[in-house]
Amino acid sequence: MTILPVFIKNILRPILSPILGALSKRIEVADPWEKHERKVPKDTFGSGNINDWQWYFDGKSSIEVSSVEQICHWLCECEYALDKDLFQEDDFWQHPVTLEATKTGDCEDQALWAWRKLTELGIYSELINGRMLTPNTPEESTHVWVLFHRDGEPFILEATARTIETMLMPLEEAKHKYCPSVSVSGSFQTYVYDGYIENIKATSSQ
């Protein structure tokens, strides 16, 4: 039962990736933030994402929050560290309760905690995997952040920022800084963004 998925992951994916990259260059993307409801395999978000989405919501949290600002305040106290330094692994997704104990992790660890807390507050949110763009390095590597809605307006929560002012951005202001690929909502519905095509183009050109 497991032979075919392993074959696809280890054999077909490296072969097909250059083909997909070449084909994607022929596709023009009007809006990278246009999304479509699709089933997305867990490891599309990162090779270290080996658990079901519900797993990240299991276990009692020791941090109580009642607002988006309180979520940000707690994250501002966390430290950023690479998985290679913390766990001697290329990609390791911490459980949010573990992050509360370590207060140290990389982008997906801190974004996962924010996503869980926003969902627990009844705020619509998505955990997004994609690329964070900068003026000098538009092909920057994979990044994870959170999209949430407040008063009907979409915002980005950049969990690795260290001030509330830089952590919260209206989506319209943040669009040029991020290119989304896939996401999962608090109800575990997964989506594919049109930015996935742009990210394949960027990756295949490196």
Description:
The chain is of the alpha+beta class and 206 residues long. It contains eight helices and nine strands. The protein has helices spanning 3-24, 68-76, 83-87, 96-102, 107-120, 164-167, 171-174, 195-204; strands at 35-37, 79-80, 104-105, 125-132, 142-150, 153-157, 168-170, 178-185, 190-193. The strands form two sheets. It has a seven-stranded antiparallel sheet. The protein has a two-stranded parallel ribbon with strand order 2-3. A hairpin with a 2-residue loop joins strand 5 (142-150) and strand 6. Mean pLDDT is 87; it is low at 1-13 and 19-24.
Protein structure class: alpha+beta
The number of helices is 8
Beginning-to-end CA distance, first to last residue: 35 Å
Strand content: 15-25%
What is the percent of helical residues? 25-40%
| CA gyration radius, whole angstroms | 17 Å
Low-confidence stretches: 1-13, 19-24
Question: What is the arithmetic mean of pLDDT?
Answer: 87
**Using DSSP, what is the number of strands?**
9
Largest sheet: 7 strands, antiparallel
Features:
alpha+beta; 36% helix; 206 residues; seven-stranded antiparallel β-sheet; 8 helices; two-stranded parallel ribbon; 9 strands; disordered N terminus
Structure described in brief:
With 206 residues, the protein is of the alpha+beta class. 36% of the residues lie in helices and 21% in strands.
